[in-house]
Every structure is written in C-alpha cells, then in structure tokens.
From TrEMBL:
GO molecular function, one term: sequence-specific DNA binding
Stated name of the protein: AraC family transcriptional regulator
Gene3D superfamilies: Homeodomain-like
Organism annotation: Mumia zhuanghuii
Signal peptide segment: none
Keywords: DNA-binding, Transcription, Transcription regulation
Length: 283
C-alpha cells in the first residue's frame, strides 16, 4: 500500500487542494466509501476502471478510468479491485468552470465519466500520467494539464464566480460551516433568498447545505486524527469542536452522509489512514 502526496504549489494551488498518488495490491476490503466533501473529486485510474455506485448493492454503477465526483451529500460506494493505481485530486468547485467547462452546479449525479465531460483530453491525460512510473513526473503531467485548461478557457468557461459566492464560501469556511445563513446574507449584502439563488446557480447547493458539508469535512478530519493520535480526543470532544450539539448529533450526521457511524468508518479506513491515504483537512 503506497500513497504519495504532491505539494499543492504553483498558480493552481487553490484550484487543486490535494493531489495524491496511490498504488495498492492485495486489497481485501472490496467496499470503499467516498465521503461527501465541499470539493469535487477527480480520479485518474491507471490499471482498472473506478466502479462507483449509489448504494452498496447498486445494480447499475458507473465505471470509468477517469472519474469525476460532483458535489454531493451522499457517499459514493466504490468497488475496489485487488490491485489499483492512479492519481486522485480534490478540486475546488470554483475551478470547475475552466477545468471542466461548466460550473459545479451543472455536474449532475454522484459520479461522471470524465470523458463525457472533457472528451478525448481525459484519455490523453491518463496516457501522459501512465507514461512514467515516477510520481513527480506524473504530478507534473497533471499540473501541465491544469495549466493548459486554464490557459485555453474561453466563453462561459472563463467566467469567474460572482464575488458574493466567493466571499460567501470564504465566510462559511472561516466559520467552520457553523455560521447562520442570515448573518452570511447580511455580510454579502443580499437577502437570504438572493444568497441561496446565487449559490445554487454556481455550486448546485445552497449556503446551508454547503455549511453542512464544510462542517462534516472538518469532523471527518478530527475523527481520522484519532488514529494518528489515539487517546487525545474522544468522539464527543470532536463533535463539540466541529460544532455539533453532542456526540449523538455527530453520529446522526455520519449515518446520513457516510451511511455508517464514525466508529464504523474508522474500522473500514484504519489501514488507509495509517498508510497516509487520508491527509490533512483540505478546508
């Protein structure tokens, strides 16, 4: 089990908040839960397709070598092969226009074949990444792809998000997802209804739902850290620090967004966490 984390540097550091190379063999746990996040997920699989379902027993999952995970409040159920290798990115939704040609609100569903979004350039990127075994060269190929997409963006793809949405995102993250929508609306000089309209138009989510995702993402990081620093903080402590009313509230949110409890998720992901598969919080 091998995870290599790229440094998020350069002009697109804000667009890609995490880039991780992975190489695994002898995988025994067939099911992996892709947790909801305030970021889009891009996976470039080099050996076998990524298979994503909306349920554990999904009879019609999406399968693709190049997979895009839109914003969602539900987990993605990923069928893991015995051996897998590739690169996974966490992409800021404000980069969606120039990177994927449309705002995040126009990317439907739980998983999309990147080829259906970008056409032949998706497969071309995978070939570039697969041309070398060196992780630094693979990451460089991804960075070059990002630079090309940004440089050639035109028309609607080059339009920047509304400043109220940009500032609203910053405000929500600064408050850990716990701020009141009315306070945010006042902060950006919009009515709550206007605020929701501009958020949904750009992200496909209103500010309240985005706040929920940001808070859950922070909570996942705190729960994950219990593996790295056992005994330092209880689940009740993590719940309070993340902004949940109590331990039961955190468990309820995990059940709703992950389909399992915090303890159940840790049991599934402990080996990946110990191997470095889950990095620091991206928010």
């Amino acid at each position: 089990m091998d995870f290599v984390r790229a440094e998020t540097r350069g002009p697109y550091a804000g667009a890609v908040t995490s880039m991780v190379g992975y190489r695994q063999s002898g995988v025994t746990q067939r099911l992996h839960r892709g947790l909801p996040s305030p970021y889009l997920t891009l996976v470039i699989a080099l050996d076998t397709p990524v298979v994503v379902g909306e349920r554990e027993d999904d009879a019609a999952p999406v399968a693709a070598y190049d997979m895009l995970g839109p914003l969602s409040t539900h987990p993605a159920y990923i069928d893991q092969p015995d051996t897998q290798e590739g690169v996974q990115l966490a992409v800021h939704p404000f980069a969606s226009r120039w990177l994927f040609g449309a705002p995040a609100s126009r990317l439907p569903g739980l998983a999309l074949d990147l080829g259906d979004v970008l056409g032949p350039s998706a497969a071309a990127l995978r070939r570039r990444v697969a041309d070398t075994d060196d992780w630094s060269e693979r990451f460089a190929a991804v960075r070059e792809f990002l630079a090309t997409r940004a440089r050639t963006a035109s028309g609607a793809a080059a339009v920047r998000p509304r400043p109220e949405v940009v500032e609203g995102w910053r405000w929500i993250v600064a408050h850990g997802g716990n701020g009141r929508v009315d306070d945010l609306a006042a902060h950006v000089a919009l009515s709550p209804r206007q605020l929701r309209t501009v958020f949904v138009d750009e992200l496909g989510l209103g500010p309240k739902v985005l706040g929920r995702l940001v808070r859950f993402d922070r909570a996942v990081g705190m729960v994950r850290d219990q593996v790295a620093r056992p005994g330092e903080e209880s689940l009740s402590d993590a719940a309070a620090r993340a902004g949940y009313s109590d331990h039961a509230h955190l468990v309820h949110e995990f059940q709703a967004m992950a389909g399992t409890s915090p303890s159940g998720w840790l049991a599934e992901e402990r080996r990946n966490i110990q191997a470095g598969g889950h990095g620091a919080e991206t928010g």
